Amino acid sequence: MSHCSFTIAVNDTEAPVARCRNRTIELNAAGSATLTAGQVNNGSSDNCGLLGLSLNRTSFGCADVGMRTVLLTATDGAGNSHSCVSTVTVRDNTDPEALCQNVTIQLGAGGSATLTAGEVDGGSADACGIGGRALSRTAFSCADLLGPRAVTLTVTDVNNNTASCTASVWVRDDLFGACPDPCPNDPDDDIDGDGICGDVDNCPADFNPGQEDLDQDGLGDACDTEVCINTVVSSLNAYVNGLSTSLSVKRAITRRLDLAASKFCSGYGTGSVISSLDYVVSYVQYQSGGGIPVDAASYIIAQVNGLINALNAGTVVCCPSPAALPVNPGQPATAEEELVQLEASPNPFNEQVAIRFYLPEACPAELEVFNLNGQRVAALLSGYVDAGRQEYFWDGTDGRGLQLSAGAYLVRLRTQSESVTRKLSLVR
User: Fold this and answer.
1) Which residues contact 237 (CB under 8 A, 6 or more apart)?
2) Local structure of 103: helix, strand or coil
3) Average per-residue pLDDT in the chain?
């Protein structure tokens, strides 16, 4: 028997199949992006298995914004390869960084000046480059002398992405004196730079262009160390009563505001006063756009929140109430008007009761609530009271703001010469 041997060579000559997909990539804030073969591959294959995938380029930058082509190559273990082409869309959607700086410009001999975007730009930048800058206004005149003027700088990059910032421009007339004195009655010419002459500025030494004055006492909030709760409430009540809304809505707001002022001036804790104000905020929010116009509701809420902030800051004080108008002015007082009067309504009450009284002359007075055991449960007033009609509210809570149980209570008004008591019925 004879034997022989032979060698069989198995060759893989079949190339893989490369399949591509088009891709879109975004440049990052540094202006670069990276593409991987896996992002372009769309199911490339080989009869014996792929060894690898590769791209002819993987890095892209600002110069590549737009459509670019890449070559994906699939290689098998036998060294066979096949390629396909993918279209890559490179996008720059990153906004530039807009940086502003405040500037001072001098008016010319003709009383005018021009500002350029470059003067306001404080170092705006973009990875792919700035394409342009524009200002919201460039021309200034004598009318702009008081206070800073706000300008907006808009920066656009080379790929039309934009960003904006705001700068303050101070306009001066120090070189030519081309303009009349903007503040003839103010020797300091608006020393605080808020655009309001000092002779009419409610805080002439403090920057307050809005002239905010929460308690309407003529001294702006920027320099007023005390907020008078009585005048805040009185002013806000006048605003509410002037709205074109239902009487029930007005009463719901004004009575709670009056209750808050009464509580504060009667020595109740801050938490109890704020609780009454929080009710106003919640109620107005609920009525906004319905019973109360949206802009009016926003104003009321802002004013009440301002008062709450002042209460938390400890700057609220109780000021003397405005003097009440006399009954039937110009006519002799009746016998009834010469006596102290006290009434309460509604009675019985659930949520709150309005306690009204009349004093024929200004004097010290106390308004207190007692239980039937003679224990004082609430002090609503203690101090000097102007002559005329007054109104206070009690919500059925004690001096700590805790709700009292249902039952009968006595409200007593006491002056130096008289004492009047009425019975109250609290129901729950």
Assistant:
1) 253, 254, 257, 258
2) strand
3) 85
